[in-house]
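DM from R.C. (forwarded with permission)

"hey, sorry to bug you on a friday — could you get me a structure for this? deadline for the figure draft is monday and I only need the backbone to look sensible"
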Amino acid sequence: MSPLSPPEASLIEGLDGKSMLDQAIAWAEVNSGTANLAGLDRMARLLADAFSALPGELSLVEPDPVEKIGADGKVLEVACGRHLVVRVRPEADRRVLLTGHMDTVYAADHGFQSCGWIDERTLHGPGTADMKGGLALMLAGLTAFERSGPTLGYDILINSDEETGSLSSRALIAQLAQDKFTALTYEPALPNGNFARARPGSGNFAAVVTGRSAHAGRNPEEGRNAVVAAADLAQRLAALARPGLSVNPARIEGGGPNNLVPALAIVHFNMRPHTPETMHSAQTELDEIISAVSVAHNVSIALHGGFGRPPKPISAATQRLFELVSRTASDLGHPVDWQDTGGVCDGNNIAACDVPVIDTMGALGGAIHSPDEYLLVDSLVPRAALTALTMHRLQALEALS
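My reply, with the result:
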């Protein structure tokens, strides 16, 4: 006997894998690297046209202002693309948040721009797994769900800057999460089909070190070498790493002619704490290190950035959500498990709003963020069915708490 009820079996009949695949290919061949504003605008319009098939109010939301530190140590404004929001049955008592992103890591001038076949089930292409295939199956799953005459409400957010930390959409994510009892995010599943479980947090920082210039031969003692101070800072940052906290000093900018004591250097680094407690202690230790290096080298250090992705621990409600989704996947004949991962995504931000989230509802694939990225095309129909049936079962659920 099938574990699906007749209404559930009817719900997922007719899911069209070819349509999803065609959509994924068409979208993947639009370059939408996070900094490619023209490509993002084209992608947003294509998505708006496709998602307008759902019975909701659709809007393109302007990005919040974003700043970064330039090579001269000054603050620069970063241009970002618009974000797509679809609101379906906003009057419903119980509502779900579904999120994805339209941007990829491949810049407009990157050599990886088109799709091709590795074999009959493996499509090679930029953003095919992360996450244009996921967007296609999300839409197909929701379209199937809508055929059941549902009462469950939901919002969809497809942002334009997830790959660079969702800085221009972070407030929008928090706003949309406010009235939701659960959330689904369409990052690609792990290559074996498993879901991501707990995730660390992530913080990106730039420390601007300002010293004092002097002639390297005539009066070096009057200078304050910003590069030396920056190197000391990078070493002390690296020494903070321990189980539960990774620290990566990624780049030092600055310096100049050999006969000049450099007055400016910038240390760019990433920190990934595994728990909220570690995040708070890492911030304290970071402040102490910056103070100590400033004193030791008689320089000033201005810190920019922060922990844009809080750690994502697993709550009891998240565990129950996983059990529902996992049981649904098994009933569809595709059992899954979940495992902790070192990556971060918008699921971190949603979980920080106390909303339980499964954040790897997308397609199966691998080698993401590389020119070898691929999509397993036979995952599109099962994952679209998982979306439709999960939404159906969430509608019947009393609560996750």
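R.C.: lifesaver. The mean pLDDT is 97.
me: no worries. The CA atoms of residues 99 and 157 lie 5 Å apart.
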